[in-house]
Automatic annotation (TrEMBL), chains A, B:
Annotated organism of origin: Pseudozobellia thermophila
Family matches, as PROSITE patterns: NUDIX
One Pfam family matching this protein: NUDIX
Record protein name field: ADP-ribose pyrophosphatase YjhB, NUDIX family
Transmembrane intervals: none
Residues annotated as domain Nudix hydrolase: 16-148
InterPro entries: NUDIX_hydrolase-like_dom_sf, NUDIX_hydrolase_dom, WH-like_DNA-bd_sf, WH_DNA-bd_sf, WHD_NrtR
Gene3D superfamilies: Nucleoside Triphosphate Pyrophosphohydrolase, Winged helix-like DNA-binding domain superfamily/Winged helix DNA-binding domain
Length: 231, 231
DNA sequence: CCAAAAGTGTTGGAAATACACCCATGC
DNA sequence: GCATGGGTGTATTTCCAACACTTTTGG
């Protein structure tokens, strides 16, 4: 009879595996939801594009590895990021067995280090016009999008894709881009003003219209009072 | 200047890490949602309890590793199982660095191999009366419960915890156990009969009441017609 | 005959949806 | 003065929650 598992934990003899993190870096620009990808200049799958990845080293928390990879590519710190899924088919990477854990990051396109990104041959693509991706990276994008859609409906995470001050038309376009559907302007604003964590400032942004739209900011305190969010 | 990541993929030199899967095996028994745990008979954390785990070997899909671990402990095949989360703090296992990917399984308690389970010193515990667990396993339970609650509200996965034929009172008790709250009988049944994928059989189960309750079965075909579920 | 669980509809309130016009401004 | 996008309220429908009595039958 076999021994219980936990007694089998002859740790040192257990096979070890290469573990990677792949980051789905989302940005919002001129009404488009975009994803940051790097060009793959070598075989196999040369000239396809790939998510930004890196390997996890032994004394590093998995989450920290994802933050490191993000920082190395964009120079950004303090970014909203969450784990999406672990992809572990034995043959998902034809070169060697690699388990990849994906993370979804919402970054402010205006903040990242453009130099750095260019030096990595990285490029932003609108989410609905992605190039061919390597391996199972399209599946990763799908999984991250499903989660992002759910998240923005149930929590105040979308604001991470907008600057501190933003207008309601901007916010609505962001939601439309993420959810992939038109939203009724009046109903959208009604919901937002019901949960009252948006503060209207005495400033207008005239860059996108003649009339100008009021700027708002998200008030974390007020949100924490009720912790309710539903779009 | 650093080279782009993907060009750094000197795979062979990358540090490798022990990867485990831990299974949250849920069962439903006499109105209680239960979790199958194994007793840990050795240090560190001797006499605490732990999820059922095992290590991923190199030519094995991550999902397959989880199925293997489940099968080895319970003898069950064809079980509903889904990945929950990858736990990767560098020091989560004090003995060695192990990344653990958790999977949530919904099993039919009447089907599993009792002999096998006992031989592993495994035991079922009601979800609201768990013993002390090792490492970060309580966090794993929390994560799996959150997901299970969401899943049973939005999809027909709860039926995996009941036999082929079941009564509505049983189903309701299952939902109450998972969601941790009382449910109104009439509203519950109204929702179920609105989505009409439950077939009432001409049999009653009299084991739990004098009057007896009609047996139902879940009709997958009918569910697939509309693919709508909401409790 | 009575205790215990199964079964069954209606109503009121809340939330979601649909929908159309005026306003301010730059050109 | 007109084209462009910003801003606002109401009526309808749909969904959800609350709620109480009758039925069956084993003991």
């Amino acid at each position: 009879m076999q021994k219980p598992f936990q007694i089998n934990r002859a740790y040192k003899e257990v096979q070890q595996i290469t573990v990677a993190v792949d980051c789905l870096i989302f940005g919002f620009n001129q009404g488009n939801l975009e994803l940051l990808l790097v060009h793959r200049g070598f075989e196999p799958e040369r000239d396809k594009w790939s998510l930004i990845g890196g390997f996890v080293v032994n004394d590093e928390d998995l989450d920290d590895a994802a933050y490191r990879v993000l920082r190395e590519l964009t120079g950004l710190e303090d970014v909203y990021m969450e784990q999406v899924h672990a992809f572990g088919k034995a043959d998902r990477d034809p070169y060697e067995r690699v388990i990849s854990v994906t993370y979804s990051a919402l970054v402010l396109k205006e903040n990242y280090d453009d130099e750095l990104v260019r030096s990595y041959k990285a490029q932003w693509f609108p989410i609905d016009a992605l190039p061919q991706l390597i391996f199972d990276h399209e599946e990763m994008v799908e999984a991250a999008m499903r989660r992002l859609r759910r998240r923005v409906k149930t929590g105040p995470v979308g604001f991470n894709l907008l600057p501190e001050k933003f207008t309601l038309p901007q916010l609505q376009r962001l939601y439309e881009a993420i959810l992939g559907e038109k939203i009724d302007k009046r109903n959208f604003r009604k919901k937002l003003s019901a949960m009252n964590f948006l503060i209207r400032l005495d400033e207008k942004d005239k860059s996108e219209s003649k009339k100008g739209a009021f700027l708002y900011r998200f008030d974390e305190e007020k949100y924490n009072d009720v912790k309710h969010f539903s779009i």
